[in-house]
Amino acid sequence: MSEEKKQVLKVENVTMQFGGVVAVNNFSLEVNEGEIVAIIGPNGAGKTTAFNVITGVYAPTNGRVFFNGDCVIENFPRGKMKKLYKGENAGLYSHTLEPTPDALTLKGMARTFQNIRLWKSMTVFDNILIAKHARRTSNLFSAAFRGNRKEEAAQRAEVEELLSVVGLTDVKNELATSLPYGKQRRLEIARALATKPSLLLLDEPAAGMNPQETQELTRFIGQIRDQFGVTILLIEHHMDLVMDISDRIYVLDFGRMIAEGTPAEIQKNEKVIDAYLGVVDDAED
Amino acid sequence: MTQKKSKKGAWIALIAVLAWLGLVFALDQLIKPTDKLGMLLIVLQKGSVYALAAVSMNLLNGYTGLFSLGHAGFMLLGAYTYAIFTIPDKNRDTVYQYFHAVVRFSIPEKLSQGMGGFGTALGVLIALLLAGLVAAVMAYLIGLPVLRLKSDYLAIATLGFAEIIRAVFQWSKLGPVTNGSNLLKNFARVSKFKLELGGTKLSLSTFVPVLIATVSITLIVLIVNSTYGRAFKAIRDDEVAAEAMGINLAKHKMLSFVTSSFFAGVAGATLAMVLSIAQANNFKSAMTYEILLMVVLGGIGSITGSVIGSMLFVAASEWWLRGLDSGSFLGIEAPGVFRNGFRLVVFSIIIMIVVLFFRKGIMGEKELPDLFRRKKKAAPAGKEAAE
Amino acid sequence: MQTVLPYIISGISVGGQYALIAIGYTMVYGILRLINFAHGDVFMVAGLIMVYLAASLPLYVAIPLVILLTVLLGFTIERVAYKPLRTAPRMSVMISAIGVSYLLQNLALYITGGLNKNYPQIPWISDRISILGMETTRVTVITPFLTILLVVLLVLLINHTKIGMAMRAVSLDFEVSQLMGVQINTVISVTFVIGTFLAAVGSILFFTNYPGVVPTSGAMPGLKAFVAAVFGGIGSIPGAVIGAFIIGIAESIIKGLDTILIVNGAITEQIGLATFSDAFTFVLLIIILVFKPTGLFGEKTADKV
């Protein structure tokens, strides 16, 4: 039955190489509508790099990304990279499509950051409101002369609603950075949701949280998937959270995908255990 | 609820602006330039021009976080555009002594032929808008290559463009348009602006520049408080996050740059109007630095701060500290020390003290109305500072 | 060629002077990531100190004293205006530098009364000599050699001494060097001392060829030297030197371009291209920033997300 589901994201043979260093090597991944998919792996395995490629921060050295069925990113080794390229499947592609992150956000991708990136000088309310900016229809003139009153009021109402869903209404006028850590994470997720995404990418949402906060977050992630109907791709180190909510898991090590499967399969996978326990060397910190 | 509050705030702001304009108009009639208080008029004239320049710079440097040092160049463009299109026909040949002027019409003069005094006012307005537009178009062209650069590289590249613009305007081959390195004069200027009411002539020489600055600054405030202003601030706070939330960096940076330059052009035109001359050599990078220091004095990221900062800057350097240049200050007689230039030394030391020890300037990131309301909010803010 | 040669020679000389200033910019930027806008004004102040000292002291006392006082000024500026802002955003430090520049110019304006101060004639180096069949001053000829000598000494210092190693470490990673026990403040002070020392030497060479010093004398050479530093790849000393020579020569040629073109028959009358001798520097700057933002010899740095 899951075969019938719509494919939201498809990453195809993506390699990301910085100079001579291959951060992500020939990575492929698929995420279907309504799923929660996790990417795990030891530190330095290339998870965040993979995220940055998918969201348009880096143009991949080689490979393609499809979003909701359309090819949104494509590249192949060119120029200097032609000689330097160490990855695979270089011959498969011949087009380049390198959108900036904002273009992908407009298509329906939204993300959070590993090291929280809220807008420091602004309140909780404004942090979410600004994320709505990309969806407004007013231009500079109509906005300056308040020709967009209706739109502005509607967006403000949406922000209020979002705030109450994520439970931040009581702190909406506080500075975003004055919130406790856990709430800042929540705010970042709310801000991403404000762009009305169909795919939400969470980069270590539970980093720095204690077990109780992690549990709360696990529930929260499940809740937003159901309530907003978003598909979720996440990077995480907290194994209880990952095993708890993921439908499928991809494991990266040294830029390569070493395993893929359901939480139960991954837990039994020899290669994954080796990567984490460090048979060759200790990759985990 | 918040909607109602902001509506009330808008009315209060409107009344305050009208009262301010009324006051300036009254001062314009009551004080003669030769009076002891005549300096007040000069401070208001120059102060409002610099306030506009500072606010427009703040839009870019303070609100969007783009450190640009090209302001003098855009003001030059504005000043020249305005001057060239408002020199009356009969004055053309005396102004362009060494060249044969190409532009041979004055917009205010042309319009006044059909519409009288109203036509002149309309002509001045059109010339002002044209001044802003020329600066804005140039900003767009310059912005295409340089806005991709990061902080200090952007600063130095914009500074470079301002210097290039200055050189181009002084080039003798462009003399028929720009009068080369000679100054432009005899164009529509504030000392000539009068309102005739029932036979009495009312002076507008202070009112007009103040009006231009007030209207322009109001427009900038409207932009800053709109969804675009918030997007600019998001770019300043965290560019990566802004881009990830769907804000197109190139487009918004360009919008901010072009808008800022438009108003810099208007400020340049108004400056020409106030000083009665326009000369490329006055628009050196030192002018940009002065405007930047006004912004810093008032607080980077505060519009009222920029206005207060530039008014204080002009008042202090043109008026209050005058005594430091002419022998006696606050009753102290010391002609040996208090001679030409001492004022600026004292003044630069004050500025250095602000830069080093009061980094937030007078207003920080607050606006004047913030000081009157939301006392309640002071508590959490204080708590945060204590942490 | 005969018409171009004199311009090239004077360009090389001006380039050498710019190079000495540019090193101060590039070293400070390498370590503090700060465009020291006041550097050009320090150069101007060195000129003024010379004017005043030479009026009452013999030159062999005045010249070392000029260098000493200028170095002291550079050191003081760093301690007073930049050190307190070490943890502040970069923009604040840059504004402070602009403030110092404003202060120095106004101070000079006050002391000189805005008048042009004649620069003293320094025997031997101010003498007119004839080389390759053209008249010039001796300083024009010795400048490039002196510059190169000083640069070689500086590079030796940076590559072979302990303090040089510390400087390289700090410019690679400020925080880590601090953690590793490098005395950051000493390193920064030494950088400013070296930078201002070279600017003082440059000032003596530069003003000898000019009629006098005014408060704004430092602004343009300062900006140009900075452009030279960016052109060569900021942080790189050889880059700054090469950039400075290129800019010096280009500027000098443009100053004489009308004459050169007339002699070659390309144009028939003066067209005032000399107006662009300053602006051309900035054209070069923008071209390099757009096409190779890291300069000719700069290293690429990646942004972290």
List the topology elements.
The complex is a heterotrimer of chains A (285), B (387) and C (305).
Chain A: E1 7-18, E2 21-32, E3 36-40, H1 47-54, E4 62-67, E5 70-75, H2 81-84, H3 101-107, E6 109-111, H4 124-131, H5 140-144, H6 149-166, H7 181-194, E7 199-203, H8 211-228, E8 231-235, H9 239-245, E9 248-253, E10 256-261, H10 263-268, H11 270-277
Parallel strand pairs in A: 3-8, 3-9, 6-7, 7-8
Antiparallel strand pairs in A: 1-2, 1-4, 4-5, 9-10
Chain B: H1 2-30, H2 38-63, H3 71-84, H4 89-95, H5 107-115, H6 117-146, H7 151-170, H8 175-178, E1 184-185, E2 194-197, E3 200-203, H9 207-224, H10 227-237, H11 239-244, H12 249-275, E4 277-278, H13 285-298, H14 303-320, E5 328-329, E6 332-333, H15 342-357, H16 368-372, H17 378-386
Antiparallel strand pairs in B: 1-4, 2-3, 5-6
Helix pairs in contact in B: 1-9, 2-9, 2-12, 2-13, 2-14, 3-6, 3-7, 3-12, 5-6, 6-12, 9-12, 10-12, 13-14
Chain C: H1 5-32, H2 39-56, H3 59-82, H4 90-112, E1 117-118, E2 128-131, E3 134-137, H5 138-160, H6 162-172, H7 174-179, H8 184-208, E4 212-213, H9 219-232, H10 237-255, H11 257-263, H12 277-291
Antiparallel strand pairs in C: 1-4, 2-3
